[in-house]
Amino acid sequence: MKKLVYLLFMLPIFIGCNKDPKFNDPIPDHDSFTLVSQHLNETRVINVWIPKELKTNNTALPVIYMPDGGIEEDFPHIANTIAALVENKSIPPIILVGIENTDRRRDLSGASQEKEDAKYCPLTDGAKNFRAFITSELFPEINKRYQTTNKKGIIGESLAGLFIMETFLLNPEIFDFYIAMDPSLWWNNHSLEKNTPNYLKNFTSKKTKLWFAGSGAEDVSVFTNNIEKYLLSNAPENVIWKYCNEPNEKHSTIFRATKEKALVWTLNAK
Predict the structure, then answer these.
(1) Predicted confidence band at 6 (pLDDT cuts at 50, 70, 90)?
(2) Distance CA 105, CA 17 (A)
(3) For position 24, which CATH number holds?
(4) What is the pLDDT of residues 130-166, one digit of tens each?
(5) CA triplet 263, 151, 240: central angle to 5 degrees?
């Protein structure tokens, strides 16, 4: 019953990550283009931010990808944050690629065996198709349009955080770094959290970084706290990770509250 009440409370946030009018984030200068996807069977809008001082030269930069990356979603505030951090030299220059949503519930959730979950997302594995779109269609397009290095990562919260944690555990070789705030790990009877030790046993040998955080939302933090415990005893040597337990933050505030420290820790070599 407790979980059901929480999910009903969280439904507006879970369904969409629309821009919060109270923040009134300025829209930074950026590129936008559309990409026809065979994996998703639709056309997607892609938003790209590049540090202005490097936009006109041939310097190759790493890339950070972001679900919920529409102009009316999280793209403006993350792009502005990265711009400020780059300008004050807190992080090295990087390209931000935002993927605008059409149906985030379909794209960001994996398969579920729980019938109750169908109230919130399709039970089919839409995340598998979304990952295929990113890796086989979006990566090549970004590399064709921009000067990029091989280093890439992904950032997101809530349902996007679930997608990021699932990708980290199932396909860790895709990205070099992962940032997930308050991932919706309750999905599919918290199967990702329960199976984390098994996933870690057969982990990639590629060096990978993971930064994740949990808010005061009990139906999230209980699982992020458990994954921290698993990593403390089972993390592969090639995984560099950090967990931020943020009990004073709400599910709706944790992205903005932790984004700067997540980016600074993740994008600096040490």
Answers:
(1) very low
(2) 11
(3) 3.40.50.1820
(4) 999 999 999 999 999 999 999 999 999 999 999 999 9
(5) 55
